[in-house]
Amino acid sequence: ASAKTQEVVFDKQSSGGQQITYIRDPATPGADTASQAGPYGIPVWEWFIIGLAVAVMVILCIIARAYIRKTVQYIETCCYYCFYALFWPLLALFKLIKVIWYPTKESFMYCYKKGKDYYHPWSVTS
Fold first, then answer.
1. Are 25 and 6 in contact (CB under 8 A)?
2. Which positions ≥6 away from 47 have C-beta within 8 Å?
3. pLDDT per residue over 3-38, tens digit each?
4. How far is residue 27's CA from residue 49's CA, in Å, rounded to a whole number?
């Protein structure tokens, strides 16, 4: 956009002392939203929609409070089985390593001792 079509919305000085100029282009759609921004820069109509959604959720929780406990139980059960299905291969691999580790270590130690006894017969003590 050219300098003629841009309009300075406001100037601000940053914490580092630099001048920051916010501009808007009237040709772009929604260019006037900067002047209608509500808290946290969100337009007021979006805050209304958020508040309406929260109010509907509160009303639904009051109406369906007898079913909420059972629903939460079903959601927790579903999450448990999903995580179990995802992590089951890792758990099985860890158990396999625990079961196989000791015999494997002992066989390596046995082979090492036999090799050492073969190549250094003077160190054999019966």
1. yes
2. 38, 39
3. 444 454 555 655 666 666 666 666 655 555 455 677
4. 27
